[in-house]
Amino acid sequence: PWIFFVTPTYKRKDQLVDMTRLSQTLSHDKRIYWIVVEDREMPSMRIRWILERSGLPFAHITTLTPEGVHARGVEQRNSALQIIERRKLNGIVYFGDDDNAYDIRMFRELRKTTGVAVFGVGFAVGHYERCVVDEETGKVARFATNWVGGRMYAIDMAGFATHSSLIIEKQPRFRNDWGVGQLETRFIGQLVGNLTDLQPLMENCTRIYVWHVKTQGGRQDEVKNDKEWKRLSSLV
Ligand code: UGA
Q1: 40 with 10: CB under 8 angstroms?
Q2: Which regions of 29-113 does DSSP assign to beta strands (E)?
Q3: Which of 135, 184, 222, 228 is catalytic?
Q4: Nearest Cα residue to atom 31 of ligand 1
Q5: Annotated binding residue 99
Q6: Is 184 part of the annotated catalytic residue set?
Q7: Does the pTM of the predicted model rise above 0.90?
Q8: Distance 97 CA to ligand 1 centre (A)
Q9: How much is the ipTM here?
Q10: CATH number, residue 61
Q11: Structurally, how many domains does the chain consist of?
Q12: Model confidence pLDDT, tens digit, residues 34-71
């Protein structure tokens, strides 16, 4: 099956670094449809070129995050969900942020997804979060994490995938007014009713094939010299 790899992206000093690396990871796999949603008004040429050079089929759209919203990538992922639903795309939907690191072994595993699948995520700071499988039943029993935060499905955005048929049926959306760290659990809550409905992947959640990389956010991320940035963008 196709993988619909949904990537929100926004202008910051690491953007070209991250998007170059990501495009070259994804281009190892020929059955990925890359849906890139830029957080701006008009599509940028710099991202367009990266997409074209990837050799992958892609959708390049934009959705601007409204003023005052702190959640990241929410509106952009919702726009991608709309495309998937409207076009009735058939395959696996994965929310792949632009700054993470993806082991290409992940793609083969993702293709086993029938409903909502979950798996472990490594954090670049040196810990990991994962689902734990009950050996007798083979079902997901709980999540092992440093921070539960009242989350039923305590997993990062990078740690789950959904079959598009379930998306088309349930039409789930992310919301900006959900609390910090609640995006994933509340989104998954629209798709399944119980932990045991989740399909464990990556050798029963025992392997880490994806790394969450945290970019700083805020002032440190801002592009300092716009003229230089434009010149740089034209050189890649
Ligand atoms: C964590 C999760 O891994 C994110 O998937 C989740 O959206 C976020 O928390 C949240 O709950 O808001 P974090 O490192 O804070 O991650 O988020 P980023 O990786 O910085 O951003 C997530 C995605 O949204 C990235 O692909 C980024 O390029 C994009 N983004 C971020 C925008 O499109 N616009 C922004 O203003 C910020």
Answers
A1: yes
A2: 32-38, 58-62, 91-95, 101-102
A3: 184
A4: 72
A5: yes
A6: yes
A7: yes
A8: 7
A9: 0.96
A10: 3.90.550.10
A11: 1
A12: 999 999 999 999 999 999 999 999 999 999 999 999 99
